[in-house]
Design brief:
globular, about 20% helix, 4 helices, OB fold (Dihydrolipoamide Acetyltransferase, E2P)
Length: about 130
């Protein structure tokens, strides 16, 4: 089994996205290290517009790699505050560091309790291992 970087301060969805609370009470969202490894070289990302509202469990954008095109599924509900505009010209940032320079969106949550319903790093690793069996 491959090694995956799964920061313990993040929470993870079964769709392979992560969410992390910012100091302003908002959430950064991106795809997990597992997801970016499975996708391979990422060549394009389509993200929503600030002001858009996203719903947990629903697509918020599209990510395209040399292997596949996949929906990005929002792990949380809320309003898009900002997007990582650098990804338009540099989508490979997701492969390089999916938790820092490769974050996707920042949202103001409408249902903050949804964060606690996401998996912690250990639960998410078990989820990955069960899929790989």
């Amino acid at each position: 089994m491959a090694d995956y970087n799964l920061p313990s301060e993040h929470r993870y969805s079964s769709d392979d996205e992560w969410a992390s609370l910012t100091t302003e009470g908002q959430y950064l969202i991106g795809i997990s290290d597992y997801a970016q490894q499975q996708l391979g070289d990422i060549v394009f990302v389509e993200l929503p517009t600030p002001g858009d509202v996203v719903t947990a469990g629903r697509p918020l954008g599209v990510i395209e790699s040399v292997k596949a095109v996949s929906d990005i599924v929002s792990p949380l509900s809320g309003e898009i505050i900002s997007i990582n505009e650098d990804l338009a010209d540099n989508p490979e940032r997701i492969n390089e560091d999916c938790y820092s320079s490769g974050w996707l969106i920042c949202i103001e949550p409408s249902e903050p309790a949804e964060f606690n319903e996401l998996m912690n790093a250990d639960e998410y690793l078990t989820h990955i291992e069960e899929r790989e069996d």
